[in-house]
Write a sequence for this structure.
């Protein structure tokens, strides 16, 4: 059966995932940056939720996936912290300046995970040779690849996702993610993937009554800082019904 993974940014979202029967969460912070490493306290609290696997995002900053030595050492240390906190997996991606998978450093991250499941995230979609990247990730020892097929949305990259499934020949799990919703989940499943990754996000108004109109704490008025990200339970339920 195809596995399911919810991209979650809060303890509450993870509790919803467990209650609805999602197999695993990808636990992140900072959705505006595409996800970075969450706090240790958040990891510990989510790891304590019964019947839920927890893969922790290991990403020291937003932006590209070319990391300095200092950033790489932070990633190694964050993996150790995630392991100690009770995570069952970690998620990372690291590239070279010319758009290839950094195989040696990826292998070091896998080794640091000490048996936790390792997912190479959508950094694969930023590589200059997608098929070669799949082979390189397999060579580095990761358990799965999260991919949108080199496009912004997985449904647009479905041909490449199917190609990744073909190239992998069962040597690594392929998980489709980005823009996965109930209306396209069946088509993505038919591409032969092992798992679907989705956020099922819904924005709701926060509880603040007073809102200072002169300040944007994030430096961008495009981000509504008084809106809260929650899980659309109906969307998750619809996706799970298709799979089951």
């Amino acid at each position: 059966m195809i596995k399911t993974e919810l991209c979650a940014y809060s303890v509450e979202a993870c509790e919803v995932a467990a209650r609805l029967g999602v197999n695993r969460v990808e636990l992140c912070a900072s959705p505006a940056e595409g996800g970075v490493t969450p706090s240790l306290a958040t990891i510990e609290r989510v790891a304590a939720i019964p019947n839920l696997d927890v893969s922790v995002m290991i990403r020291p900053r937003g932006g590209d996936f070319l990391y300095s030595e200092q950033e790489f050492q932070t990633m190694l240390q964050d993996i150790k912290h995630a392991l100690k906190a009770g995570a069952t997996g970690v998620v990372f991606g690291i590239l070279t300046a010319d758009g290839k998978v950094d195989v040696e450093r990826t292998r070091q991250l896998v080794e640091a995970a000490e048996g936790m499941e390792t997912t190479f995230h959508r950094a694969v979609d930023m590589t200059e040779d997608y098929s070669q990247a799949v082979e390189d990730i397999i060579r580095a020892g990761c358990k799965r690849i999260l991919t949108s097929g080199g496009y912004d949305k997985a449904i647009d990259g479905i041909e490449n996702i199917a190609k990744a499934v073909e190239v992998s020949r069962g040597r690594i799990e392929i998980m489709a993610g980005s823009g996965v919703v109930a209306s396209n989940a069946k088509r993505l499943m038919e591409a032969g993937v092992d798992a679907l990754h989705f956020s099922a996000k819904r924005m709701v108004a926060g509880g603040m009554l007073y809102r200072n109109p002169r300040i944007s704490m994030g430096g961008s008025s495009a981000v509504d800082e008084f809106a809260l990200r929650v899980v659309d339970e109906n969307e998750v339920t619809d996706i799970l019904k298709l799979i089951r």
Notes: The chain has a mean pLDDT of 96. Residues 3-199 form a domain with the TIM Barrel fold (CATH 3.20.20.380). The longest strand covers residues 3-8.
